[in-house]
Amino acid sequence: MSGAAPATGPWVSGSGRARHQTISVIVENRAGVLARVSALFARRGFNIISLAVAPTDDESFSRVTIVVDLEETSVEQLTKQLFKLVNVVKITEMVPGEAIERELALVSVRCAPPGGPGPSRGEVGELVRIFGGSVVDVGHEALTVMLAGQPSTLDDFEELLRPYGIIDIQRTGRVALPKLERPTARRGAGHN
Amino acid sequence: MQLTGAQALIKSLEMERTEVVFGMPGGAILPAYDPILDSSIRHVLVRHEQGAGHMAEGYAQVTGRPGVCMVTSGPGATNLVTALCDAYMDSVPMVAITGQVARPVIGTDAFQEGDTVGITRSVTKHNELVMRPEDIPLAVRQAFLLASTGRPGPVLLDLPKDVLQSTTEWHWPDDTELAASLPGYKPTTKGHPRMVREAVRLMTGASRPVVYAGGGILKARASEALRELAELLDAPVVTTLMARGAFPDSHRACLGMPGMHGNYAAIMALQEADLIIALGARFDDRVTGRVASFAPGAQVVHVDIDPAELGKIRRADVPIVGDCRLVIEEMVRVLRASGEDQADRRAWWATIDDWRQRFPLYYEPQLPGDLLKPQAVIEAIRDAAPEATTLVAGVGQHQMWASQYWRFEQPGTWVNSGGLGTMGFAVPAAIGAKVGRPDRTVWAIDGDGCFQMTAQELVTASAERIPVKVAILNNAYLGMVRQWQEMFYEERYSEVYLSPDLPDYVKWAEAMGCAAFRVESPDDVGPVVDKANAIDDRPVVIDFRTDSREKVFPMVPAGASNSDVIVHPALRPGGEKVVQ
Description:
The complex is a heterodimer of chains A (192) and B (580). Chain A has 5 helices and 10 strands, in the order E-E-H-E-E-H-E-E-H-E-E-H-E-E-H. The longest helix of chain A has 12 residues, at 33-44. Chain A is an alpha+beta fold. Chain A has helices at residues 33-44, 75-83, 121-131, 151-161, 186-189, and strands at 11-12, 19-28, 48-55, 61-69, 88-94, 99-110, 134-138, 142-149, 166-171, 175-178. The two termini of chain A are 20 Å apart. In chain A, a hairpin with a 6-residue loop joins strand 1 and strand 2. With 580 residues, chain B is of the alpha/beta class. Chain B folds into 3 domains: 2-181, Rossmann fold (3-Layer(aba) Sandwich); 193-358, TPP-binding domain (Rossmann fold), CATH 3.40.50; 374-552, Thiamin diphosphate (ThDP)-binding fold, Pyr/PP domains (Rossmann fold), CATH 3.40.50.970. Chain B contains 23 helices and 20 strands. Chain B is globular, with a radius of gyration of 24 Å.
């Protein structure tokens, strides 16, 4: 974590375009629950930026991580409405700076074979290496690369790949967990 | 014990003490109609599925128990949607059972297949497609629990035909299994003690408090507690359209209905209050008028069992999530224990009494040769009605007049469609209300437009010997729309004329097995109402020919501030009505 995120207030995404909030929702893992969640967003006029869902360690529950646009929405009203769904068990608002947020991107990007015209595989590969990503597929004139990281890092990565020519990109939407609590006396005690 | 899914369904409904099911059979639900023959449950065969839904609502509103309706898949279920939406908006407990096509053909566009769970998702508190016969008893237990606890509402169970046909070992889940099956459902009923104390502190100090009582008072059976609180505080009470009867109209502190067509004193008391004590009410736009200018000087204590209502429209200074009865009882206890003196409210009461004196409900007396005054018809029915008569209304002018001119003294004596405003609600809801409380006389005040939407349910009433009484205030118009066109569209009347005698309501009612009368002269109103009250073996319909020029006053135009309420012309400065 770079620590660049503001300590309080709604999350400002890497792109800086909209005010986002990440909400983590534990739901019963049963047919139709995702439809209920998304239908509620549609009906109440809440705008979803991204949504990721998968079962938790207990298969009877799923964790849905939703990033919402706060331009139009009060997060309080949104969580209250969500909680009215009978299958919603728990809702956590992810406070920036107090949550670990990650996202994964697969990007197919143009690059020339060795000796060909234009930017080479090596250049793209170097960029991937700098970001700590990996190359997951190789074609004659393209690479598919993968990067997992903070959403803002993915934004940067995407920006830097763009000039090479992005053929396809799939981002997963963000997943998040609260930061673990660590008892510490640093604050106030002045040891460092 | 091995049962079919259908037998398990009917047995589960019996276990939930269902007395009556309003419904209509059809292909997919057919298996469930066989065990009903052997059941103690009464089935009322409706003529249209929408009627089944509104009957279940009427039943629920007078008994406080979930109304149950059962229809088939596809068109049966879609016909139920309006009633589900109505019940959802007014928080009416209801359990709807729909047939579904057999599991192997779900998703193939089979005959009478509809995505019922998808279609009804946004108009139910919860719904469920039950895919195994062994899940039926738990699903029914869940449905009744969800429908009747927390914020009540409609719950729908969709049952594929082959699930009803296959057999299963009967098992009735106990409370532990029920609770474990709903890990996310834990309504908060007890108010936060610190919030309750803070609310009481504000109440004690307020010099212009108003209790804003909503339908939640009735749902929580909190009328007694409300009365105690209001008397302790010596505060005026306004009762919303959904809360008529929650506080007796004859009580000195009762200001009547607030909102778009509310009593002037009720509208202004909210507007001028320094503290609004909102109890089971949701700041509906029909109550607030323009929200930005609603009650500008008021702090707000807001009690609701649904946390999402707190702060949804108006910020609450003291939000309290909880059951209205429990929270009000706790407020009363804290108030009594505090022993602090209430702020001086004499000036506030003087202001309120002045409003009541200057701007009472008013309509002009009927002149010879004119058609009947609809308000006078309602008053005549009111004055002749036996005690605790249940009043039911459709939607429109007649509904507003019914709310304004009736005198509600007890909870559960008023049934109407508030949130959704469903025309055609009255006839079926009245039937359901009569089935729920057969000991009470049931009068439906209906409009001619409304009546034409669901009148065929009077066939149901005749066949089932459910003696409801329907007063059609027949002004030959879609009256409320006419009123808006007159006031806001320069009297350009567009598609609102209906004709007074097409259909012939008397002949129509008689054809449906009802006693029927037509009243055109004011002298006949009383005698015909007496005749109707004396008939108890079949439904009665009275066609009252009323004056289409009558408008509902007071009126706050849509989107206007409540401060700009329009009173009856005769009460305005220079008006001819002199108030002593």
